[in-house]
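Reopening: structure tokens for the calcium ion complex, inputs below.
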Amino acid sequence: MRILLVEDDALLGDGIRAGLKLAHYAVDWVRDGAAARLALLDHAYQACVLDLGLPERDGLSVLKELREQGQQLPVLILTARDTSADKIAGLDAGADDYLTKPFDLPELQARLRALIRRAGGAAAPTLAHAGVVLDPASKQVTRDGQPLTLSAREYALLHDLLRHKTHIRTRSQLEESLYAWGEETGSNTVEVYIHNLRRKLGSDFIRTIRGLGYRLGDTS
Ligand code: CA
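Re-run output (same inputs, fresh job):
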């Protein structure tokens, strides 16, 4: 799950990034509106946390352009602008949620979980397939009711596959969702995580679609 964080306050940005990384998100952090625009053009994100008062370009104008391009990406505005008129302007410009500073990190995380599951077409808070249940709130994964221990990357990869249950995910799509800028990606790391997940979830849980990528196995 890859998130774009747009925040020009160094201390706050650092805190949010650290908190989201602990929640197993890959986080790209940019500090101005122009960089946000470029990042959004170049990468597939699952959500964006957007400050409004930014150097170079206001967050609202970045958001409006994103929506004019027809981009569906969930956007949560995180700002000190707390009047009712500000909130209305933000939501009407295409934001999916609006949170004012100061805020609690657990609330930001819960709002992101809600946005991401809705964007994936789901209302239920957990994802399940073939006896495996993943709970994004607690980061717990169980198989037939038994808790499993997964590494952060294994968890993120499983989360991605569960969100795209009926789709084939290519290796580059999975890499894009697992890694933020500057994080090491070995040549076969996705394969290693798939191997580990099969060991923990059963060999049929994830299918290799030759030449294309990976998909969850059939439930029967
Ligand atoms: Ca700001």
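Residues 105-119 form the longest helix (15 residues). The radius of gyration is 18 Å. Marking as resolved unless the reporter disagrees.
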